[in-house]
Amino acid sequence: MPMFASRGAYVGKPLQLGSGLSRAAEIPTGWEITTDLVRRIATAQGVDEQDDWAKWYVETEGKEPNYSELLGQLAATPAERRAILHSYIEPNEEDREQGRKVPTAGHKAIAKLVRGGYVRVIVTTNFDRLMENALREVGVEPTVVGSTDALEGAEPLTHSACYILKLHGDYKDARILNTDSELQTYPDAYNKLLDRIIDEHGLIVCGWSGEWDHALGRVDKRDSPRA
Question: Using alpha carbons only, what angle is made at residue 6 by residues 163 and 167, rounded to the nearest 5 degrees?
Fold first, then answer.
């Protein structure tokens, strides 16, 4: 890997991870989960199968499908909501045997880069915990920021062995972002942190298409001597 051949140029370089990395582990994206929740609710009401559930929902309800609202319709208690979401994200015994929903070779390679000091900051749009799990497997305990509240209480970026900024949230927090409108802007605190990361370190992109994450796309396109 070229990164190892010229370590000085890459020490501490941040990584930006997208859903491509988690899709390799057969974990659905936030939007895929949202549209599947639409399907589950609609079919329970007798609606015929649709080619595009998101389009059907917008035409029927007059608004974009919202993950939190849909989950609330399917489950009455926090425990029931967690069970539904966990079924999409957390591996069962068969998944583990088949190597699904567990850290992939990509996650493990990144974890080794972190342990070796090549990477210290990870910016991700993924809300699963595969990256965190891969890091812990190699003995690295990351600082994880999945909300503005967590950002306020987190240890400083410069003091962390590995700092993970989960821009769209964490799957155990019902506030995850995944609709088109939710992805238009980020909180000011996130924008300031992203500006600092890009200005001071630049960013290496992995598994991110830029198609849906409009706010992050604008940050990545800003002028920076290192971007």
Answer: 25
pLDDT digits (tens, 9 = 90+) for 92-110: 999 999 999 999 999 999 9
Q: Which two tokens stand for residue 63?
A: 């608004």
| pLDDT tens for each residue of 1-38 | 444 444 444 456 788 888 888 989 999 988 899 999 99
Sign of CA dihedral 107, 110, 115, 121: negative
Let me know if 2 is exposed, middle or buried by CB neighbors in 10 A (0-12, 13-18, 19+).
exposed
Q: Which CATH architecture has domain 2-25+103-221?
A: 3-Layer(aba) Sandwich (3.40)
Which tokens hold the place of 52? 């595009």
Mean pLDDT score across all residues of the chain: 84
* Every domain of the chain and the residues it spans: 2-25+103-221, 30-97
Q: What is the residue type of 58? A: V
